[in-house]
Amino acid sequence: EPEGAPPVQFLGWSFRDAHEPSNPLDDLSGDMIAEALPTVGVLHAEVDVPESVYAPVSLDGLRRHSVAAWLLGHIHTPQVWEDTSPPVLYPGSPQPLDPGETGAHGPWLVEVGSEGAVSTSPLPRATLRYDLVEVDVDGEEDKGGVDETITGAVRDSLRDALREQPELRRLVCRLRLTGRTPLHRDIGDVAGKVASGLELPVDEAVATVEKTEIRTRPDLDLGRIAEGSDPPAVLARLLLDLEHEEESDLARDAREKIEAVRDRVMRSAPYEPLRKNRDEAPGEENVEETVRRQGLLLLDELSRQTGETGKGAKPRMHRSSSYSS
User: Fold this and answer.
1) Which residues contact 99 (CB under 8 A, 6 or more apart)?
2) Cα dist. 71→8, 43, 203, 259 in Å?
3) pTM across the whole model
């Protein structure tokens, strides 16, 4: 009962053990909710993950109860379902705890009116922020140009973040380099040297780089190469199918063979620790990204052997010290 304001009821439930596979809403009876008061539900729970061991609840199940709003814990990244009635909010952690928790963090202001109307608004006051920064190096031919492009993208990201989070003191970036460039083969080393030890100050904040992800392509016309019938053409068609997420016979056959090899390797003795820790085992996305990256490198190597960039000439097939298989 806040002074000078209508009373509000908070209705909460706590875990009994470290894990809780049961749904706490199953024990929520209607007479626990005071109809004359706006009620705010407070739960540590996971939404729409039925197999969860962290008090699994459904969004529909939350909606069925006569509360003004649900405030949830468990997910560190802020998320709100405002298009529902009642609104459901994961405020997230006040400070991000992991590079995967990108974007603004901080407390949330939740206002509950006397008639039960609710508004939610973030207060992005965290001093730390993680962000994924897309860096387009399309057409770059000079390593110095890559340096300037990366530095500029990081500085712009920090300035944008400061406009949203004036109290920010450190931005930690994960770079994703994209575009078609003749420097594709060397772009990882170039970007790594730029990112290593990079500290860009803007006002009272500093930006650094945590990791660099290479999604560039060699300066090759995959469409023209794919028109042929030789091995580079087959490889180019596979890469295009992966890029466009097409489930072609070629992509399906390649995926089955790759998965068979991966499973055979994962069953070997040296990989036993990964089998025990499923979170560290390579997932489908990592496998496809590895195929895409290595396929582009192989196609680039074949093209270098002939000096062609997609004009349909057939590369000379010979041994290369860069590839053992």
Assistant:
1) 130, 172, 174, 210, 211
2) 14, 7, 35, 42
3) 0.75
